[in-house]
Amino acid sequence: RAAINHLKRKSVDTNVTWMKRTTYLSNDLYGAPVHAFKSQAAAVAEQNAGLDQEMVEVNLQSAATKIEATFHAAAKDLAALRHPTNPGLRAEWALPVLPDVGLWANVFMHVGFDLDPVTQDDPNKDPEHIAEKKQRFEKAIISDVRENEGGGTSKPVMVASYLVPKAGQTGAGEGGELAFEHLRGYQIDVRDTENTFVFLVDAEGGQATYCRLDTRVDLKKGRPDPAQRNLTARLTRRRFAAAEAA
């Protein structure tokens, strides 16, 4: 206890410079403490935020400049136009490109096949037979979309049946009926797309329009599903009801 009391009474030796208490001097008597500095992370974050804002302003200015340049390019003579990577190409005609007002309100998707269903099962590649199949396959539908846990992967996969009109049918007008049969099962991969558009060119009307494609659907040849082989369907064509057309 005597030793403890001795330590309490011990004073700081002011002759030793490194043992002196640090004194902070400031003329800010009412503000934040002088040692309340920003952390390095906060300083870096603030600097990055400033750089991001500058990049946004630069990109907007660059986009405006590029948009303005398209109007000047559209006014050029066709003979003066040059392809950016192939100088040997020459423009035959030029059309104004605008958003398609009639289609823009709808939602469209891009459907792709890993193998062309029209030709992949035709061993003879007979042109007449392929032409007949192509005409039928233009009316093909995707049906029986569901999850299949037996796809041989660690997680379920989406599968569907590709149905085509049966051969020998003349087509279905209003009120007519078409019978469909299963051609092949596909594994489906659906993903969202960005900055993907389809262009519709009307050379006779002298205009071109475009609309957005929000989704891409890839149909891949997968493991056959015996449950889909006997799948059939019948579709009847009719006009839209008033509520559907609104």
TrEMBL record:
GO cellular component, one term: Cdc73/Paf1 complex
UniProt keyword terms in alphabetical order: Nucleus
Pfam families: Paf1
Keyword Nucleus appears in the UniProt entry: yes
Example of a GO MF term: RNA polymerase II complex binding
Organism of this sequence: Heterosigma akashiwo (Chromophytic alga)
Name this protein carries in UniProt: Uncharacterized protein
GO biological process: transcription elongation by RNA polymerase II
